[in-house]
């Protein structure tokens, strides 16, 4: 009943996962990247931003003091001062911006790895459709996302208020401080609030990423019909066929390695086919095919025969017939008795023995 209703009850296969990844369907949380960037930015600024803040304090103090607030400044001096300020701030902010850029890139790479999807770069005109946009906004997923966003805002406001209320007395009496001390206090409060807000957003973003991974796994699940089609397609995959043939070849190599040394003769095509034949008149009604193979396996059979001093006889029609009609460990057919007997007689003659004739049932 579940199969008929199309219930997704099977986990995604590796092939389906790879296809989804190639199409850009991955578990990704935008909130995690933004929260990581905010948190790293605050931490970096708290470590490297002291020189920037000190310079800003000195510059503000100089401009607000009576000695540095001259109103008669020509254009040249103003440009020089502006250029100096921009250069100093730029050099101080350069390593900070670099670390934040690396953090932003790592937050994406750690989630989805290295992925390049050209189709996602191309503009999608259909997304400009206002009706489609309204449907996305007022859909169930849009409502859930909006609700989660409101909850995040409330949590962030609560965290920020908790940090500020803890230092409320300092803020109330801040009017009695000098301008530099007042600025340092405000910056300290701002940094502490931003740090706690960033940590809170990062924790919420981790939860969001976990939800995205769970949702991604649910979307990738397959119905029974999809699983059958997937297996059918995989069986026709050239890579799968090649791998299967390789495994079969390795298994066949292992089998011929054990059986060929027991053979009395190897009949060849001469190079494409090789059939190992054994005959024991005491225990066998007729000669049997111990091993057979084509291509690489045939070469392996011939090599083993030479290593074990087993005669290799070229009989093209007989080799083709035995390879096509006789299975391994099966006796040769009646119509091939004469040809096989001739080969065995030749082998026994080489060994100086008299060949016993096959027993015909």
Automatic annotation (TrEMBL):
Membrane spanning residue stretches: 26-48, 89-117, 138-164, 184-207
One GO CC term, this protein: plasma membrane
Record GO biological process: bacterial-type flagellum assembly; protein secretion
InterPro entries tied to this protein: FlhB, T3SS_substrate_exporter, T3SS_substrate_exporter_C
One family name in Pfam for this protein: Bac_export_2
Basic and acidic residues composition bias: residue spans: 1-14
Subcellular location per the Swiss-Prot or TrEMBL entry: Cell membrane
Chain intervals for the UniProt region annotation (Disordered): 1-24
Entry similarity comment: Belongs to the type III secretion exporter family.
Annotated function: Required for formation of the rod structure in the basal body of the flagellar apparatus. Together with FliI and FliH, may constitute the export apparatus of flagellin.
Identification of the protein by name: Flagellar biosynthetic protein FlhB
Organism, scientific name: Lacipirellula parvula
